[in-house]
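Table S5 (text form). Sequence records supplied for joint modeling of the two-component complex.
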Amino acid sequence: MRLLKNAAFAAFLLATPCAASATTITIATVNNSDMIIMQKLSQQWEKQTGNKINWVVLEENVLRQRVTTDIATHGGQFDVITIGSYETPIWAKQGWLAPLDNFPASYDYNDLLPQVRSALSVGNKLYAAPFYAESSFTMYRKDLFAKAGLTMPEQPTYAQIEQFADKLTDKSKQQYGICLRGKPGWGENMAYLSTLVNTYGGSWFNMDWKPQLTTAPWENAINFYVNLMKKDGPPGADSNGFNENQALFSTGHCAMWIDSTAAAGKLEDPTQSQVAGDIGFVKAPIAVTTHGAGWLWAWALAVPSTTKHEKTAESFIAWATSQQYIDLVGKTEGWVVAPPGTRTSTYANADYLKAAPFAKATIAAINAADPNHPTLNPVPYTGVQFVAIPPFQQIGTVVGQDMAGALTGRSTVSAALQSAQDSTTAAMKQAGYLK
Amino acid sequence: MKASLAFRIWISLLGWGAALAMFFPVAWMVLTSFKTEIDAVATPPLLFFHPTLQNYFQVNQLGDYAGAVWNSVVISFGSTAIAIALAMPAAYAMAFFPNRWTKDLLLWILSTKMMPAVGVLMPIYLICKSTGLLDTKTGLIAIMTLANLPIIIWMLYTFFKEIPGDIIEASRMDGAGALAQIRVVLLPLAGPGIASTGLLAVILSWNEAFWSLNLTAVHAAPLTAFIVAFSSPQGLFWAKLSAASTLAVAPILVFGWMTQRQLVRGLTFGAVK
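The corresponding structure-token record, covering 708 residues in total, follows.
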């Protein structure tokens, strides 16, 4: 059956209109290890189809700004763009993306993980094909836990996380009980803090789009975070994002780290990590509800409506997000680095499960994340660690700065939340959500 | 009055301290470029390690370094040459034939640098798009020329003001026209100043990132775009980023070192009369 699918898929690639006359497409993408592998392996697609690829690799925020400018002005510089689950529904509704619903049957849309497919669809049409997806979970040092006689439950609570962190912190050895994001930004500290507030029963907005940042769940969640980080976190945590925490954890300075499931492959890679093989993975901690405790994010490939090479662009996306591509990565680069979180079949693959000890925890976390019901109480928005509305980037970044201020002690938690509430209210009024 | 020995020692130490503090980030960047990714993020930072050239190989494999260098050279030198050609007559006129609007004009020219570039991103982007200048070296040369023109006019004006007007007057009496005055009198006298202005403009264009990132994609992307391809908020790329940055600054560092005599001479031009 698999062989048949592969044959059908190869036939589709060769049948694309560009096979006869070579087309050059420009792909704008972010810089991370999965995308580097894609660049490397895309030579095979070029050989198969006779087409050529120009790569434009940019830092995530630069890419967002660059692509937004290009699409909004109909610049047409890019044929394939890498976007996330935040932009996809917003841009699709604005008519900036071409729907991706014409892939051949061998592409097997139904193999895409339902949560991820849903996050990248509008009105049941897929607008961006997932390249890899992630949720968040708890990573911990099994060796330190065993030495301290502690046992990490499959579903930890934040109260337990605090107890563990207190016991495992030894600042004289630069060993910190917990590492969490503190660097301000909507995709940095606010990604984590949104999940924390969700599980404390809070939300960004109520059903009338009124900001909720001074409510009890926000107060409780942010006070918990600030106190925990002061007691058991590393110094200078307000400048720690994903990379800084990865560096701290992989060099043995953190006992626990709650962050992206995409970190797991890097931490289990001995060339990048001194603690590979000593790490356990369990669900993201909860407080008063399981709703929104773990995030959902996907990096996906989309075709901007301004492209002049739509068919070739679609052919590339169909190849790069197919199960055949995942097999290719597994066989050539090693299964541990195969793109995670996109297809059910990946998690039924014995080779992958054997190579990736974090696979089960990753798929469980992704399946548990529900961007359509991210909070305890109903909300008018979708998105777990973000709110899928255009002004959120600005709101999240400003609020992130307030929270970093509370973390460093520049302001109290109450003052930071009041400031965040005021700026969010102003931004929502300006955007027309509030009168 | 001769400074005391103690004062001279202190001032030397202060100078060396300041120079080392300024050079430290560059030195650390070069050092990090020879580390593995895991050594690059080690705590405490490693001063002694097994050096590797792996990052340089990978950076060259992933990016088009030679193409980026060529684009940077064409854009920075091209824009500097055009800007100096435009600024020379302007500065000449204002320095030697001032009128009551000269000071206001100079301030107005400089005021164009006071607006944040992002404020005019959309109109510039649309102009480039409609004229077919997006992702072209010509487009970027035009932008860099205009962006650096105010600084160049100001610097040349300052250098020209140091030249006694009587010399220009005398050449005019001898029958030299405006072009001859510039070529025969002004150029030899203000040569070091013009050279240092040109060098500064090349460095400014070389390091410019905002327009380079926003107006280029594939064909005209210079070294600043090459570096940014190795920056990532998710994944350890410090060592590769350091290697890319070292490769990007290397040509301009060598160029600056070769021309430092002219640069210093120009910057101190007219300081002592």
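Note: Chain B has a mean pLDDT of 90.
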